[in-house]
Design a protein that fits this description.
The complex is a heterodimer. Chain A contains 7 helices and 45 strands. By secondary structure, chain A is mainly β. In chain A, the strands form 10 sheets. In chain A, strands 6-7-8-9-17-18-13-12-11-10 form a 10-stranded mixed sheet. Chain A has a 6-stranded mixed sheet with strand order 41-40-43-44-38-45, with no helix packed on it. In chain A, a hairpin with a 2-residue loop joins strand 4 and strand 5. Chain A is globular. The longest helix of chain B is centred in the N-terminal third of the chain and has 26 residues. The radius of gyration of chain B is 24 Å and the shape is globular. Chain B starts with a helix and ends with a helix. The relative contact order of chain B is 0.16. About 10% of the residues of chain B have low confidence. Classes of the chains: A mainly beta, B mainly alpha. At the A-B interface, loops of A face helix 2 of B.
């Protein structure tokens, strides 16, 4: 095996040298290969300098969203979204626990897949990033002023929330399609009766243009296929949404064989504007559905979770002309629309060719009613009538295509492990570069909009094997950066990522950086347990609950000596950071507390609960190095026996 | 290889030095207030200052920062002072008690010791003051190296706080 790999690697290296030579000859570099390039210079961002782009890369099975700089590949932040993060107390402190509530109760983890940045008029506006939780279907909205998760909405009737979370060109909707079809409503039935009985829900979640607040507008109840990926139409095709499907066989077991039988599956074209109109005129059926809607408020610094009870469903047959199937070979994965909105690429992962459909032809075929049958009453258009062209034998296992806005498309090939550049319209392959190894999705900043910034391509790879120092059986996940500004792509950089990088969204830094918040204003803090004035620091007892209203500033807690707490009490630390300067968070942790630390930003209040179990005097301290006197930032709590009469008192200094 | 030998030698020398250090320590364990050893460069003993920086009166130094000139009217503006007290309570009190030394010095009678400009500059740009103003530097040392936090007050708020100080 090793030998094979070695041979492969050598071959690839030789191939690399050969292709470099080719490229080099053109540029007059005379075959100096990789050494002649200035790749290092291109990714070097000098100390103190900033990157040109933000890249929001999905954390995959970590459930989070990571923030990188391009071209350096430097990691800035891991934004906790669907998984608890002890570092930031996400899902541990009392304020953010409601964010992880679902109809199944508290779910501390998910599998995050496809980030997408909000748009206005088809261009990135940099206000929010949306990302889907795949396992317990949810969509999150991350606010790009705070780089924190502001909202999570659960998607009922969905399972394996994979063809998500893609947004329309004015952020009218964030769309979430189900990968697994399920009985709707859920019921006790034999699995083998799947075919014809299960349904696939495609959810259109409206986004308030001001607040960003999400609400499920309607769910389209489609036949029981697997809805794999999706993308919005844009420009001329704005108003439509496209979903790839597989398992049109409706197999319920051994899908790797049974779902690969049909020569063609479908791309479902959904005219959401038509359905929106239908719904606005009272169409659709409200059905009971339990799902959580969790919202974080920047003024109370607290999240609330509301359980919703019903959802509006739409039967596609009730809205004639709203849904069509475009036959597409073969188990297509990525469903990608070019910046003009004319071309819809079906990346048939088991197909030898890449299929491109034409939106104009699709409209004409619909107009002329050129149907090739129907599936569960939904008209199937004729393959030949909607086909714009095929990219012939570009590689093995195409997964996903991005666009550079200059007439080129870049498709990732999982099996042949490469990125292939081809021309939109002529379908000719113009360049190919290996990816190390087994690339999944690719990303060009703005590549999912009318206006891509076609300077870099990021490949997100499934396997790294020998690319980094080994770290035991589990090795790092990774992305690779290519310069695509010239005729030939050039691999510039490997960089490790958090979890499995399924997809990413990139944006020029100057659109986002200027809006990044520095502090929360203490005067605007509306947390019910905030201590706004230092004089308000105090301790209150309510039965066996003890509420500590504590402040923190360089470099002390107020109060820092507390007595009168007893074994069996439930002690709430409500801690307000009184700093009003940039980059002065403080942390706090209590010995033996069965939770994480708090990490509190200037002007913010957070709460953790400590249930002391032993008599004694117990210390707490600041966990984030805050000043030269950080080590002095500490305090004690005296814990007396449950039946003691120790007086409740608190102090700081000599007072 | 040569390099490795060199490094090894360096490590060996370092080890020797540190061994020496240890022995010396053992000799003078827990003696507090020991005299400097001959090898140390004798430090200049700072002349014993009679007044602490916090008690030093300097009514000419305007400090470093955005405020270059500020004339205070004879009459105290009580409305402005009231606003200043509110700002002070939320943003300053954690370190400054009005009339006694706490983390930092007390603002009571501050205008008898400092110019209005100096006070405003210390509130508005403590980082720069600590770097450049000799009195602010000395105060930092007097207060155990606990730097004054920049609480991002607006100029208007800082002026209100100054007016409040006049009432103390």
């Amino acid at each position: 095996m090793k030998r094979t790999i070695n041979i492969l690697v050598s071959l690839i290296m030789v191939a690399g040298l050969v292709s470099c030579n080719n490229g080099g000859d053109k540029k007059g570099n005379k075959g100096k290969g990789g050494l002649a390039t200035n790749a290092a210079e291109k990714v070097y961002v000098a100390p103190g300098e900033h990157d040109e782009f933000y890249a929001f890369i999905s954390g995959g099975f970590s459930g989070q969203l990571s923030v990188y700089g391009l071209p350096s590949g430097r990691l800035f932040k891991v934004i906790p979204v669907f998984s608890q993060d002890a570092e930031k107390a996400w899902g541990y402190n009392e304020e953010t626990k409601p964010m992880l509530e679902t109809s199944y109760g508290f779910v501390p983890w998910d599998d995050s897949h496809h980030p997408d940045i909000s748009q206005t008029n088809g261009e990135l506006d940099g206000r929010w990033v949306f990302i889907n939780g795949n396992n317990t279907p949810r969509i999150a909205r991350i606010d790009l002023t705070t780089f924190e998760t502001a909202e999570i909405i659960e998607v009922p009737n969905s399972a394996g929330n994979h063809s998500s979370s893609f947004i329309t060109e004015n952020t009218e909707y964030v769309v979430a399609g189900t990968r697994f079809s399920v009985p709707i409503p859920q019921r006790d039935m034999p699995i083998k009766d799947y075919k014809g009985n299960f349904k696939g829900a495609l959810s259109f979640i409206s986004v308030d243009p001001e607040s960003g607040r999400m609400a499920i507008k309607f769910q389209l109840m489609m036949p029981g296929f697997d809805y794999d990926l999706s993308h919005p139409g844009r420009d001329k095709s704005h108003g439509w949404f496209f979903f790839t499907t597989y398992n049109t066989e409706e197999a319920n077991t051994l899908l790797e064989v049974n779902a690969s039988q049909n020569d063609k599956d479908f791309i479902a074209a959904v005219n959401w504007k038509k359905i929106e109109e239908y719904v606005n005129n009272g169409g659709g059926i409200k059905v009971p559905a339990k799902y959580a809607h969790n919202v974080y408020d920047d003024e109370t610094h607290t999240a609330t979770s509301t359980m919703m009870n019903e959802v509006l469903t739409v039967n596609p047959l009730d809205v004639p002309g709203a849904v069509y199937f475009l036959p597409t070979p073969k188990s297509p994965h990525g469903c990608d629309v070019d910046p003009t909105g004319e071309y819809i690429v079906g990346n048939g992962k088991l197909s030898a060719d890449l299929t491109v459909h034409s939106f104009t032809k699709m409209l004409a075929a619909i107009e002329n009613k050129k149907f090739d049958g129907e599936a569960y009453g939904i008209p199937i258009l004729k393959f030949e009538d909607v086909l714009a062209g095929t990219v012939k034998q570009p590689g093995l296992g195409p997964l996903h295509t991005e666009f550079d806005g200059k007439g080129n498309a870049y498709t990732t090939f999982f099996i042949s492990s490469e990125v292939v550049k081809w021309k939109v319209g002529t379908w000719e392959v113009v360049d190919r570069q290996p990816a190390y190894y087994s690339v999944g999705h690719g990303m060009i900043p703005g590549g999912n909009s009318r206006k891509p910034f076609g300077k870099y391509f990021v490949s997100m790879n499934k396997i790294t094997k020998d690319r980094y120092l080994p770290t035991g059986p589990e090795v790092t996940q990774s992305a690779q950066l290519y310069d695509i500004s010239g005729d030939k792509m050039e691999l510039l950089l490997d960089f490790p990522t958090i979890g499995e990088p399924h997809y990413a969204a990139g944006i020029p830094a100057d659109i986002v950086a200027k809006n990044s918040r520095q502090i929360f204003k203490l005067a605007e803090n509306k947390h019910p347990y905030a201590t706004i004035s230092d004089g308000g620091a105090r301790v209150e007892r309510k039965g066996n609950e003890v509420h500590i209203y504590m402040t923190m500033i360089r470099s002390h807690f107020n109060p820092d000596n507390i007595e009168g707490v007893k074994v069996g009490d439930k002690v709430f630390f409500h801690v307000t950071n009184h700093e009003q300067d940039y980059d002065v968070p403080h942390g706090i942790s209590m010995i033996g507390a069965n939770t994480s630390e708090l990490l509190i930003m200037p002007g913010q209040t957070e709460t953790f609960v400590w249930e002391p179990k032993q008599v004694g005097v117990w210390p707490f301290y600041c966990t984030d190095f805050c000043s030269a006197l950080h080590q002095e930032m500490q305090g004690y709590i005296r814990v007396s026996p449950a039946n003691s009469s120790t007086e409740l008192k608190w102090s700081l200094g000599e007072d | 290889m040569k390099n490795i030998m060199k490094s090894l030698a360096a490590v060996a020398i370092l080890t020797l030095i540190s061994c020496g250090g240890k022995e010396e320590k053992k000799k003078d364990s827990i003696q507090i207030g020991q005299k400097p050893t001959a090898t140390e460069t004798p430090k200049e003993e700072p002349a014993v200052t009679e007044t602490k920086p916090s008690e030093t009166i300097d009514l000419t130094n305007k400090g470093v920062g955005p405020i270059k000139n500020l004339e205070l009217p004879a009459e105290i503006d009580q409305a402005m002072a009231a606003k200043g007290m509110e700002v002070y309570k939320t943003k300053c009190m954690a370190c400054h008690k009005p009339d006694k030394k706490f983390i930092g010095p007390a603002p009571k009678d501050i205008l008898k010791r400092r110019t209005p400009e100096w006070i405003m500059n210390m509130i508005l740009d403590p980082e720069d003051m600590i770097q450049k103003d000799p009195l602010a530097k000395a105060l930092l040392i007097e207060f155990n190296g606990s730097p004054m936090a920049n609480q991002n007050l607006t100029e208007e708020e800082a002026r209100q706080v100054l007016e409040y100080f006049r009432t103390l």
